[in-house]
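Input sequence (123 aa), recorded before submission:
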Amino acid sequence: MATTDVTASTLEQTITDNDIVLIDFWAEWCGPCKRFAPIYEKASEEYTDIVFAKVDTEAEQELAAQAGITAIPTLMAFREGVLVFSQAGALPGPQLEKLIEQVKGLDMDEVRTKVAEAQAQQG
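Predicted structure, token format:
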């Protein structure tokens, strides 16, 4: 599966309809984004059970602002609708693969418990 372009109108459904979703926030003028793109594309072909989404921050400025994007590229990972990773900067191929394996290996019951505890403390 190749990468999928996501917009403000398709983002939420993409995250809720799929088990694991990676989102690359990028822009055409961004050098590191262009260097990361083939790494991300290659991973999308290897891990066909994961949705590899891309958000063009120039075309989707409001969505990028809502997501708190302050630097690009920024990679976010969602598992079962929960944000489990968010980091600015292009990852080399081996690091991206390691991240994917970590996201796949998460105990989501444990993650949900920690999220609930954190929300209760902020209460």
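Checked by second reader. DSSP finds five helices and five strands in the chain.
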